[in-house]
């Protein structure tokens, strides 16, 4: 059984962090943090560190470190999925903010979204942090296809390696 891991990274891996959040991985970002600061924060918050650096964590903060290749987003996603399980279900957290999305009714979305999306039966969710709305649209379909190609199975199956 793979560990269910929460991650911490800095702004340099934001594109990877966003992809992983689509899959349900809890990836916190400390923008501008130095690697030593990341190690210390990850130790305090019980997270593993995602980094491109080869540096080892100090003895004072012996955190798990997952090294990912530079400028190879697909290989980086594969490396994470191969060794760690996501904290929550796919499509359940905001890809930008990492917070849990909240289910919203069509009624609550009136005036915020086009009418075609605010009909009964369209599952809507909303990020309490940035206020963005999410629904099963073309973006999700494209992401779904990207993950199927990169990790060889649909996002909903990352929990069953
Ligand atoms: Zn958000």
How would you characterize this protein structure?
There is one protein chain. The protein has 161 residues and is α/β, with parallel strands linked by helices. It has a domain of 82 residues. The chain has a 4-stranded parallel beta sheet with strand order 2-1-3-4, sandwiched between helices. A 3-stranded antiparallel beta sheet has the order 5-6-7. The protein starts with 6 loop residues before the first strand and ends in a 10-residue tail after the last helix. Bound molecules: zinc ion. The site of zinc ion has 7 residues, from loops.
Proportion of residues in β-strands: 5-15%
Number of helices: 5
- Give the strand line-up of the largest sheet: 2-1-3-4
Would you report the number of β strands?
Answer: 7
User: Could you tell me which ligands this complex binds, including any ions or cofactors?
Assistant: zinc ion
Described by strand count, sense and barrel closure, the largest sheet is: 4 strands, parallel
The chain-level mean pLDDT equals 92
- Which structural category fits the helices and strands? alpha/beta
> Roughly how many Å apart are the termini?
9 Å
Low-pLDDT stretches are none
Radius of gyration: 17 Å
Q: Please give the oligomerization state of what you see.
A: single chain
Gross morphology is globular
Helical content stands at 25-40%
Write out key terms for the chains shown.
5 helices; binds zinc ion; three-stranded antiparallel beta sheet; 161 residues; alpha/beta
């Amino acid at each position: 059984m793979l560990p269910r891991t929460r991650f911490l990274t800095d702004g340099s891996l934001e594109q990877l962090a966003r992809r992983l959040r689509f899959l349900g991985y809890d990836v916190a970002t400390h923008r501008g943090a130095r690697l030593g600061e990341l190690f210390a924060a990850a130790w305090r918050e019980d997270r593993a560190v995602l980094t491109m650096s080869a540096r080892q964590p100090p003895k004072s903060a012996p955190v798990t470190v997952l090294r990912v290749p530079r400028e190879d987003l697909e290989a980086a996603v594969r490396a994470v999925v191969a060794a760690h399980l996501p904290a929550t279900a796919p499509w359940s957290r905001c890809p930008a903010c990492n917070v849990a999305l909240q289910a919203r009714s069509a009624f609550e979305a009136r005036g915020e979204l086009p009418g075609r999306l605010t009909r009964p039966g369209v599952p809507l969710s909303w990020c309490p942090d940035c206020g963005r709305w999410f629904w099963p649209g073309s973006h999700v379909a494209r992401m779904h296809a990207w993950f199927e190609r990169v990790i060889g199975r649909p996002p909903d199956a990352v929990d069953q390696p």
